[in-house]
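I hope you will forgive my troubling you with a question about protein structure. The record follows directly beneath this note:
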Amino acid sequence: MAKDEIIRIGVGAVVFRGDEVLLVRRGKPPFLGHWSIPGGGLEFGERLEDAARREVMEETGIEVEISGLIGVFEATPGEAGQTDHIVMVDYYGEWRTGEPVAADDAADTEFVSFDEARRRLAWDETRRALVMAIDAREKANGQ
């Protein structure tokens, strides 16, 4: 592997508040200006769920309780505008405290309906993660 061929690990979270989901508009690449779920890079020595909670807090000011794993997704170079190979571990969870305020690398953030979230999300894999999170949440709640 060449020095510039790096595989990065990212984490993300679908955060529910009732019948709404938290989205962020990216303020930096990848997906600059596009809507996504809160997330970012895993730091050395950090546990995945801790990283997901930290990223949600850093980008939105929201405290989240992680409920479960959605899945593992990846973007390879050239896919969705990527230059790196990124492996993303996405979780879902419930809003606990705070109101969304864009910070860190988020240009905007807000809670929106599930249908609005599906319309806004820029990447098919993120839409798939949202649907998987909704299904997992419903199963966990016996619906």
